[in-house]
Amino acid sequence: MKFVLEVDLATLNPDAEATPELGRILRYWAGNLHHYSLTPGDTSALYDSAYREVGEWRIECGGQ
Known about the structure:
The protein has 64 residues and is an alpha+beta fold. It has one helix at 18-32, and strands spanning 2-7, 43-47, 53-60. The protein has a three-stranded antiparallel sheet with strand order 1-3-2, with helices on one face. The protein is elongated. The chain starts with a strand and ends with a strand.
């Protein structure tokens, strides 16, 4: 299995700097992963501080 987290930096909140915004997204999801079974096919949208969808995380089958 593979855990994939993708964030489109071009779509982040334009009023926020990319580095702190990405850090906020990573901290939030790191703290919430225990709510998921993390089985292949699990996925969730990622949102910036303006609550706009900017990416997703997902669990994929396979190693590469």
